[in-house]
Task: inverse folding
């Protein structure tokens, strides 16, 4: 296992989308989520500890996917925006695969 991990282009796209939706709708995510999105968008190398935090975030917030307007780009739920900030489904799958 390497000491750092580079996010994928798909994760970067999801994070950028989340940042755009957050700006437009003024909701979703925390400052930590925004910082994570910036790192992902710029495809900055992430530490093992960060990848573990990502996996933990997705495990805690998978329930958000059942909320009304999750996945609706025209009126997104705050949880959907936050999910995107962390890299979306691509981020969830990537973090999980890195920790196997």
Result:
């Amino acid at each position: 296992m390497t000491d750092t991990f580079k996010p994928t282009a798909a994760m970067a796209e999801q994070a950028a989308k989340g940042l755009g939706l957050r700006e437009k709708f003024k909701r979703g995510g925390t400052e930590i989520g925004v910082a994570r999105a910036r790192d992902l968008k710029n495809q900055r190398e992430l530490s093992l500890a960060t990848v573990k935090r990502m996996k933990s975030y997705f495990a805690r917030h998978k329930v958000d996917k059942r909320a009304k307007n999750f996945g609706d780009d025209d009126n997104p739920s705050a949880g959907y925006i936050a999910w995107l900030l962390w890299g979306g489904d691509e981020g969830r799958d990537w973090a999980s695969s890195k920790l196997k």
Summary: The chain has a mean pLDDT of 96. The two ends are 10 Å apart (CA to CA). The chain has one domain: 4-98.
